[in-house]
Request: fold
Amino acid sequence: MTLKQISLTIPENLLKASKEYSKEFGYRNIQEFVLELIRKKVFFERMERYQKIENDMIRGKNVKKFNQKDAVEYLKSL
Reply:
């Protein structure tokens, strides 16, 4: 895995609160805390979205009829 460095500008009061939160909940540093927030946002929300689609399909809500190839392309487009 290749790591990339980014620069982030946030209000001072939010940085202070984030540092306090990080320390209180056992993060080694604020970078570790921010990485976890991004992971949760990216991975968990994607999983929730796919679960919602699956539940809609089970209930027959907003169901589109696709062959396998078109279904894969449709899911990629979401």
